[in-house]
Amino acid sequence: MSVLGVLIDYRLELALWVALSFVLHAVASDLAWHYRRPRPGRLGRWVEGLRSWPYTSWLLQGLRFLYYIGIPYLALLRGVALPRLMGLSGLDWPRGVSLGVPLGGGAFLVLALIWRWYARAIAGFTHPSAESDPAANWWVVLREAIYAESHWAFYRCLPILLLDDYYTGVFLGFLLVSLEWWISPAWRAALSLPEGAPNVLMSWSMAFAMAIIFLFVRNLWLIVPIHWAIEMGCRKVLAVPHREA
User: Fold this and answer.
1) Cα 60 to chain center, whole Å?
2) What average pLDDT score do residues 197-225 get?
3) 100 contacts: CB under 8 Å, gap ≥ 6
4) Other Cβ atoms within 10 Å of 74 Cβ, number
5) In whole angstroms, what separates CA 68 from the centre of its chain?
């Protein structure tokens, strides 16, 4: 087999892994939206029984772990997702820290200013029940930062590999993430509601900010704590409710 043939197969398999991730997300989000309220029929009763099962939360967290961590890990094991493109190897720590810390600080200041203005703008429209503890458990925010950054790094790996262009690939990866969110009916519905829009827009703006920081840092191990610090700071300052990815 020629080198070109090997490269085509290798890129195609990565595209299939990303497509699988897309399909799983679309199916899960549609099912969750469809069965957000009790439904008649045998399947509806089964779903309600599953919701009342005491270990459902553990099952869901296990499935989320397999989705956000398991799929990229399997692609790495297959050798189709390159550790270097995901920011897992070939790291320049001094450069990453010297760029990541000030970029993270700047991103926090920009997001804090934007969201302080936005929070004041919607203060009269948000229902009190939509508010929650702004300082979500630090370990929950850390877990979600790990899930999000691993997922985003996996998605941006494909366009970087196909185009051999880090700059364009990073932003195309961001567009892939945005498209995945958009196909979720829950996200589209939340975007149209004053009490739901802050979560959607916060996640989107965080993804955009972290894409820019990753472009310069290119170190997933460093990006995760930067993401965590920015989000914890924003939630403490702006009292934005926590939402899982």
Assistant:
1) 17
2) 91
3) 213, 216, 217, 219, 222, 223, 226
4) 14
5) 9
Half-sphere exposure of 126 (CA within 13 A, CB side): 21
pLDDT at residue 171 in the model: 94
Report the C-alpha dihedral over residues 136, 155, 83, 148, rounded to 10 degrees.
Answer: 0
Please, are residues 237 and 159 in contact by the beta-carbon 8 Å criterion? no
> At a CB cut-off of 8 Å and minimum separation 6, what does 31 contact?
none
CA 15 remoteness from chain centre:
18
Specify the residue for token string 């930062």.
Answer: 145
Polymer length in residues for the chain: 245
Q: Whole-angstrom distance between the N-terminal and C-terminal Cα of the chain?
A: 41
Report CA-CA distances (Å) from 21 to 68, 137, 153. 9, 28, 13
For residue 231, give the nearest of 241, 217, 222 by alpha carbon. Answer: 241
> What is the C-alpha to C-alpha distance for residues 76 and 60, in angstroms, rounded to an integer?
24
pTM (2 d.p.): 0.85
Report CA 188 to chain centroid distance, whole Å.
16
Counts for the chain of helices (H) and strands (E), in that order: 11, 0
Read off the pLDDT of residues 4-59 as tens digits, 9 standing for 90 and up: 444 457 789 999 999 999 999 999 998 888 777 666 666 666 666 666 667 778 88
